[in-house]
Amino acid sequence: MVPCFLRALAAGLLFIAPASLPAIAAEEPSVAANAAAGREEVDAKRARRWYSAGAEAGGLVVAGITVEAPWRADAEIAKFARDATRGQFTTPEKVKAIKEAILGLRRLNLRYEATGSVSAVDAFRTRAANCLGFTNLFIAMARTVGVEAFYVEVADVDEFARQDEFVVNNRHICAGYWSSSGFGVIDFVERPPFTPRYRPVSDLAGLAHYYNNRGCDFLRAKDFSGAERNLQVALAVQPKFAWARNNLGVALGRMERTDEAQAQYRRAISDDPRYGPAYANLASLLASLGQGDEAASVYESLSRVKSRDPFSQYQAGLFALGRGDFETALKRLHRSASLDPSLPEVQIGIAEASLGLGDRHGARRAYERALALDPDNMRAQIGLDRLAATAPASH
Question: I need a surface site. Which of 109, 223, 236, 316 has the fewest CB within 10 A?
C-alpha cells in the first residue's frame, strides 16, 4: 500500500488520484512484465483463460440478478473501434490507435470525471469517465478488433475517502493486453513516482470492482440506498470481496442500520484479516455506540495486524488521542511517522499527544516539522502560536 494518501487527510478525502488533466501511461510489455514481477508474477495462461471466458459476455445473471457487463461494446462502439484501427495490423499498432481515438481532441476526447465509474457504453455516450470507465471502454474497443485485453489490478494504488469518521475504499484498475512481445498495460492516470505491481484479474473480478466503485460513487453523493444496491451486486459476484463488504458497512451505518453494519465489518475482517479499513470502521462504529473499550481492542488489533501501514497506525493513534491515552497515541503516531516521515497531519497528532503528556518541547518540535512539510498548515501554525503565547515567563 502506498502511504502518500494521508497527504489529503486535512481536506477530509484521502485519494491517490489522477491530476486534473489525466494522461495515458502506456507501459511497453517488457517494462510492465518486469514491474509485475515479485510477489505477483504474470501468468500468461491464466490471463488468457480469463480473457476468453468473458470476452464474448454481454448481460450477466449473478445470484439471480441481471447485471450490466461494463466491457460490452454496442454497435456504435464496435464501428468506432474498427474505424480507429483501420490499416493497423499488429497489437501495438491497434492499442496506440485505440488510445488516440479515445483521448484525441479530434476524436472522442474523453475527459476525466472522478465519479465516472461507468460502463463502456456510457463512457462512449457521455465522453466522460474515471480510470475504471476508461478501462471499460478500452477493453470493449480492443476486444472488438481482436486485441486480447483484460482487467488489471494495480496492487499498490488504492483510493480512500471518508464518510465522516468512516473509511471507504476502492482499488485502482487499469487495462492489460497481450501482444507477441508479452504483457502490457495502459492506464488513464499519470505514472506514479514508484513502480507499481500489476495483477491481471478475471472479468468477474473486474465486474466486482465496477460495482464496488459505483457503490463508492453513490456513497460520495450520500445516496446510501443506491450505494447498498451496487455493493450488494459486487458481493454477489465476489462474496469475499472485503473492500465491497467494508463499503457496504459504511452505507448501512449511514442509514442507521448499525447492527447490520457491524456484521459487515466483522465479515470483512474474517474474509481478509489484513484488511485495515474494516478494523478502523468497526472501531469507529463501536466508539459511536459508546463501546469504547471494545473499540480500543479493535484498534489494538489494527495496529498489530497493519504494523507497517502508516494510515492504520495514524488512525489507531488518533483514537487513543481522543480517549486521552496520550502514551499509546504517541507510540502509534511515532510509528506512523517512522513509516512515512512526509505527513504533516501525523506530526500535528504527535504535537497534541506530547502536550497531553506535558512535553511542550516535543510539541514544538512536532509542530515545526509539520510546518516544514506544509508551510501553509494552519493547525501547525496555530499550535506554535498558542505555545508561544502560553510560554512560562523566563526569570
Answer: 109
| Model pLDDT for residues 284-324, shown as the tens digit of each residue | 999 999 999 999 999 999 999 988 888 889 989 999 999 99
Quote the pLDDT of residue 41: 35
User: What are the extents of the domains in the chain?
Assistant: 3-289, 290-395
Where the chain has pLDDT below 70, the residues are: 1-66, 156-170, 189-195, 393-395
Quick one: pLDDT at residue 183?
85
Which residues are CB-contacts of 389 (< 8 A; sequence separation ≥ 6)?
Answer: none
With H, G, I as helix, E, B as strand and everything else as coil, classify residue 217.
helix
When the candidates are 3.10.310.50, 3.20.20.150, 1.10.3720.10, 1.25.40.10, the CATH number that belongs to 290-395 is 1.25.40.10
Q: What is the pLDDT of residue 253?
A: 95
* Separation CA 135–CA 139 (nearest Å): 6
Rounded Cα gap, residues 272 and 289, in angstroms: 24
pTM, two decimal places = 0.77
> Tell me, what amino acid is at 206?
G
Q: How far apart are CA 5 and CA 65, in angstroms?
A: 35
Asked whether this chain's domains 3-289 and 290-395 adopt the same fold, the reply is yes
- The β-bridge partners of 198 are 154
The answer to whether residues 330 and 354 touch, using CB atoms and an 8 Å cutoff, is: yes
From the CB of residue 20, how many other CB atoms can be counted at a distance below 10 Å? 7
Q: Is the dihedral of CA 261, 266, 268, 269 positive or negative?
A: positive
Task: Tell me the HSE value of 127 on the side-chain side, using a 13 A CA sphere.
Answer: 10
**What is the DSSP annotation of 302-339?**
HHHHTTT-HHHHHHHHHHHHHTT-HHHHHHHHHHHHHH
Whether 346 contacts 314, CB under 8 Å? yes
Q: At what angle do helices 344-356 and 378-389 cross, to 10 degrees?
A: 30
Q: Which CATH number fits domain 3-289: 1.10.630.10, 3.30.980.10, 1.25.40.10, 1.10.3720.10?
A: 1.25.40.10
Q: Are 22 and 114 in contact (CB under 8 A)?
A: no
Q: Please tell me the number of Cα atoms within 13 Å of 269 on its side-chain side.
A: 21
Say whether 199 sits in a helix, a strand or coil.
strand
Tell me the HSE value of 5 on the side-chain side, using a 13 A CA sphere.
26
Give CA–CA dist 265/288, Å, rounded. 15
Asked if 333 and 313 touch (Cβ cutoff 8 Å), the reply is: yes
